Each structure stands twice: as structure tokens, then as C-alpha cells.
Amino acid sequence: MAKNAVSFFWFRRDLRLEDNIGLFYALKSSNPVIPLFIFDEAILDSLPKDDARVAFIHESLAKINIQLNETGSSILVKKGKTPEVWKNLIQEFDVKEVFFNKDYEPFAIQRDEAICQLLESNESITYSFKDQVIFEEKEITKADGLPYTVYTPYKNKWLEKFNQLKPVREYETSELFSNFYKSDFSFPTLKQIGFEESAIKVKPHNLTQIAHYHETRDFPAVDSTSYLSPHLRFGTVSIRKLVNWAARKNAVFLSELIWREFFMQILFSFPKVMTQNFKSDYDGIQWRNNEEDFKRWCTGNTGYPMVDAGMRQLNETGYMHNRVRMVVASFLCKHLLIQWQWGEAYFAEKLLDYDLSANVGNWQWAAGTGCDAAPYFRVFNPDIQLKKFDEKGIYIRKWIPEFDLGYGQPMVDHAMARDRAIATYKAGILK
Which of 169, 326, 368, 400 has the highest local Cβ count within 10 Å? Predict the structure, then answer.
């Protein structure tokens, strides 16, 4: 029996139909397009059954499926090991072409290379596209072609190239929806995937206050955050629309989007930073790595209000304010002398917006071991940070209800911890 000749569009970190480059070109192909998402067991097997990010992905796919149903189509959702899923699809369909948007993490690069080889051995043609960034891989480099390792010159070069393009082209797909494969694939429940609803939810993104971002971004009690980061992570919003918008509205917010791409190109160019110090000179630092101290940090029981409020916010909601992230990360690495990889792994488990490149980049920034990092002798004083950015204690009282009822003493003296950190770094930095 003849198999249906089709193209596939493979969703990954781009969970939207609008302004999706790979999908745009898939729908312009000569074959009807099956939209596909794979819940990869290689990733899922390590996650708790109530992981809020899996629930958010499922919810986002359900919204896509509703949109597709209006065109007489549907999304094909599979669960399994990705190579096995593709082997089965090759057996079921005459797969002419496969379109997908690039992912720049080391695991994803290896996965995609393997799948492309599998598909090409089946005489299926694969096409990959730049979608989750404005500039990728080696598009922003120094004059000698080497990658930037300092943010400011990278940003300047990024803006120079962006100004030649702006506004960045956005890709209208709705006029092409008639080329979706007509189908009524069964959409699985979260339970059928092996997961359950989480008490933690991803909030809708909100751009209304971003015009004042530069004025309010350091104050955690002011609920002026965009809540965009999980949506950027999973691609439910288009980076092109965001950058075009930010370029008109707020330069500081645009700079944060550029930081995201800076860390992506660092991970792409220096994949060792995933687990190792960017600055190998720092490999000799003798970390304390006290497990009891780490547990107190994780649960928000250090006796430092801003640290504890931040960790409790993270544990209860999956979010943490950016200013507070710097404070809690510095505290772990400098006050407690626990290596950054411990904190990075904990954030990877808890953050709704967990993104490998940004998480590694920011943790190494805080530890002083990364590119363009805070100097090792900068040790944030959590009490001064509290006075500067939450003077009235609104933020800390929200997350520490017992604060006014005899809050605990700091687990470590700041002055002693600062001197110890500086001495330990000095002794451990390899010359």
C-alpha cells in the first residue's frame, strides 16, 4: 500500500504557529505538512512527574492543536526516544522533507546531527533554520573571526548589525495554513504522557510596563516584570517581534535580550562551560561544598532575608527576580564557598525559564569564573542589597511571613565570609 508523501515540521523550542521561520518554509514546500512534537524520554525520564515545564509544553501544544483543528489539521504528538520515533515515522509515511529550527545546546546539536543522518539515509531532505535568536553561531565575531568573550563589544557589534536590518523581518504563516496535512491525530492527555498537573504555573507574559523597565527592574517588590523568560525559553513568543518591539520602546530591555544571545554564542563556541569554568585559572579554588549549608540555602533558611525570600519564591513559584538571583548566587559561591555547579543544577531543577546557556553564564558570572564575570573580590552584601532594593521589606515579607516574629540569625557573618572568600580565591587562582 502506497504511503502518503508528506513533509514534517518538527516543533522543539518554538511552540507557536505565528512568525515561525522553519514552519513558514515548511508550509511553502510542495507536500502537505505534518506538525510534530516529540516528548523525548531521554529528557523526561529525569524529571518529576509534576514538572511544571512539561505541563506548560503540553498546554502550549494544546493551544496549537486547537488552531490547527480550525484548518482541518492537527498536531502529531509522540513520546519516546527521538531516534525510535523517527524510525517509526519513516515506516508510516513517505517523508520527503523535514523542517526544523536550530537549537544550539550541545545535546541538541548531537541529537539533530544523528536525526539528520537517519533521515538522509531514508532519502528525506532536512532543512534547519535560525529562529530563536537574531544572530547565531559565528554571525557576531571579532575582526579576526574569533568569538567575543566580553559582553559590551559583543553588544556594540550586535547593535551595529541589527541597525542594518531593523526592523527584523517577521514571517507571516497564516496565509499558508491550507498546506497543513489534513488529519485528526489523537492529542494525548498529560497523564498519557506520564505526567500530572503542577501547582506551579507559567504566567502569561506582559509587556505593558516594559517602557519603564530601566526604572523598576532592580526592585523585586514592584511587580513590573514581563514574565517573558519561560515564553522565550519554549518559543511561545517570537524573538523577532520582541526585539523589534524593544528597539522602539526600551534600550535596557533590548540589552537583556542581547545578553541572552551573548550567552548562547558562548555556550556554542565554548561547550566546556556547561560543566567547567570558562576561566581555567579558577580550577584550583578549594570549595567548602558543605552539604548542610547547601540545604539551608536551597530551602531559604540562611538568616539573610533577601537570600531566603528569593529561594522561597523560587521553590514556591518557579520564578525569581533577576536582582535577587545575583544576590543568592553570590551568597552561595562567595559566602558559603559552594561551587557554582551545585547552584546551577538546583536552578535547572526549579526555574520555569531554565535555559542552559543563560543559567551557566549567569552562575559563572556570579562565581567570577566565567567570561566577563564579576571580579572575584566583589562579594555582594545581602543586607545592603536589601536596603537598596527592598527598603520597606515588602518583598521579603511576602515570602518570609515569620520575618517580624523573631527571624533567625545569619548562618555566617558577612565580614568573615567576605574575607574568607577573597583569601580562598587568591590562594586557588592558578597563575
Answer: 368
